[in-house]
Design a protein that fits this description.
The chain is an alpha+beta fold and 539 residues long. Helices cover 14% and strands 30% of the residues. Strands 33-26-27-30-29-32-25-34 form an 8-stranded mixed β-sheet. It has a 7-stranded mixed β-barrel with strand order 5-12-9-10-7-6-13. It has a 6-stranded antiparallel β-sheet with strand order 20-19-22-17-14-24, with no helix packed on it. A hairpin with a 2-residue loop joins β9 and β10. The longest helix has 15 residues.
Length: 539
């Protein structure tokens, strides 16, 4: 169904979902991309990201500079002016494709399933000009449609654990190219040597939302390994890793502006503790820090001022206990030991001057799944040496700062997690929301930077079928068919097809991030208007 007027729905307290329809329609998709193009050009709007879906646009905004009411009024007035969202002329991208054999191991299945010859299958697949409906699932993965009916294929019953980069697959009436090596369940028909994603470029993807794509058969393709990422390190390295712990990474406030290309924001899991650590040592608010999940040991190669915040932990400098949530002077050669007092939770070690790693697409945050950002795109390892940014003035003057009791109390609050009604609440039964806000849920062991899976009473759906994929915000509570909620965290995918029953407000995401597996989680429903003046950055 195409709606008479687009629906505007709050997606938490920092995003709006604009729905044009609940079906896949080419004309609707043109409207989605035209509106995204128009809003992207409005430099006066405090927008952080625009994420197109098949028939919707997710608009992420800076909730410290505007609110849902103001921005939704602006969008409504824009939608009443057809000239403002006139579709732009799309680009046409040709993709040379080697079909079959080792490049397309499922071509034989497609031939048998369709009853066509191999040449007919290839001819059908390459005769269509496909549209890029949106980019999601993984950085640079474009959802292309529509495949001719005779070669529309079911997904693999068991997904492959490894699909080579450049592989071209079919799933239902969709086709797409895997931009990097990853697991996948699509039927592989061919492969291209084109590099569809390169984090060193801006934009980083070859295919972009709204483009048109044509596959051109070739007899063979030559694959050239991408050059290794060049990492420039300062000669004045000041911090070395003796024991790096588990999943210790470099993070900052996140990589905004690239979710339309399938790139997660990433950034610190606990944005409140991250901001406090930088403030204590006098860094810029977006300076890169070390995000810590388990015990680690480091050595300072030069004198420095550090601050440790986050989950309760013991900080030792040369075996002497030092205060946390405070700035501490460290001598050259000192051994720094950090030991969390419980399993689970996140800690942040800020160093005066910040961690000096290259900025990738506007951020120093590590995105491990994509292999870029931070320190060589990976978790820190024993023997790594980190460079520290330049610090003006005598660093000793930044030692001895202590966070206020108000900030500490705010960081350690245990109140219910506040949520806003989700953009797909009508997909659920009348009692599902009351169950969500009255039941006890437990955080399971399946909890990482991408999402936290909860266990509790089943949340039942009122509608059957599959949701049309759309952009998803931080804190979205997705509910798969098993009825058990999943809360999307810092490295969450940019688009998704599970209905969202509610969204955690940004102020309470740090509380949830610091919950440990086995802990109970309670939710409280509020209105979006109640949180616009209550964002934690006011402290």
């Amino acid at each position: 169904m195409i709606y008479p007027e687009p629906r505007l729905l709050p997606a938490g307290d920092a995003a709006i979902l604009i729905e044009f329809a609940d079906e896949i329609d080419d004309a609707v998709n043109d409207q989605v991309h035209a509106l995204a193009q128009f809003l992207r050009a409005q430099n006066h709007l405090p927008l952080l990201d625009l994420i197109p879906g098949y028939s919707s646009l997710l608009v992420c905004y800076d909730s410290a500079r505007t609110d849902y009411s103001t921005l939704s009024d602006y969008v409504r007035s824009t939608l009443q002016s057809p000239q403002a969202i006139a579709p732009a002329e799309p680009r046409l991208i040709e993709i040379p494709t080697a079909y079959g054999g080792e490049n397309g191991p499922d071509l034989t299945f497609i031939v048998e399933h369709s009853g066509l010859s191999e040449s007919q299958v290839i001819s059908l697949h390459s005769s269509v000009i496909y549209r890029v409906y949106f980019v999601g699932f993984a950085p640079g993965f474009a959802y292309l449609g529509s495949v001719p009916d005779p070669i529309a294929m079911p997904r693999l019953e068991t997904p492959r654990t490894r699909v080579p980069a450049g592989s071209i697959g079919i799933a239902g009436k969709q086709t797409g190219v895997y931009p990097m090596e990853s697991p996948g369940g699509w039927r592989l028909i061919g492969r291209t040597a084109l590099n569809l994603f390169d984090h060193r470029n801006d934009p980083p993807t070859l295919l972009r939302p709204g483009d048109r794509v044509r596959f051109v058969p070739v007899s063979s393709v030559r694959f050239i390994a991408s050059p290794a990422q060049f990492i420039a390190h300062s000669k004045l390295s000041m911090l070395s890793l003796i024991d790096p712990g588990i999943l210790t990474t470099i993070q900052d406030a996140g990589r905004w502006g690239y979710q339309a290309y399938g790139i997660p924001v990433s950034g610190a899991m606990d944005a409140f503790a991250f901001a406090s650590a930088n403030r204590l040592v006098g860094n810029a608010s977006n300076a890169a820090v070390i995000e810590i999940r388990s015990p680690i040991i480091l050595q300072a190669q030069e004198r420095q001022v550090i601050a440790l915040t986050g989950v309760d932990a013991t900080l030792l400098v040369d075996r002497r206990v030092m205060p946390t949530w405070a700035s501490v002077f460290v001598r050259a050669g000192s051994i720094i030991e950090i030991n969390p007092k419980r399993v689970g939770g996140w800690m942040y070690l800020a160093i005066r001057g910040g961690i000096a790693v290259p900025s990738v697409l506007g951020s120093r945050s590590t995105y491990v799944r994509g292999g870029f950002g931070g320190y060589e795109g990976r978790a820190l390892q024993a023997g790594d040496t980190l460079s520290i940014g330049e610090s003006k003035g005598d660093i000793v003057s930044f030692a001895g700062r202590i966070e206020s009791d108000e900030v500490r109390a705010f960081a350690n609050r245990r109140s219910p997690i506040r949520i806003i009604l989700g953009m797909h609440a009508d997909w659920f039964s009348s009692d599902a929301l009351s169950i969500l806000t009255s039941g006890d849920f437990v955080l399971t062991d399946v909890a990482d930077r991408m999402g936290y899976r909860l266990s509790g009473p089943r949340l039942t759906r009122a509608r059957s079928g599959e949701l049309i994929s759309c952009g998803v915000p931080l804190g979205a509570i997705q509910v798969p068919s098993d009825g058990q909620p999943i809360v999307l965290m810092a490295d969450h995918q940019t688009t998704g097809g599970y209905p969202i029953i509610a969204t955690v407000i940004r102020e309470d995401m740090p509380i949830l991030a610091q919950r440990a597996p086995g802990e109970r989680v309670r939710f409280e429903l509020i209105q979006v208007s109640q949180v616009q003046e209550n964002f934690w950055t006011r402290i």
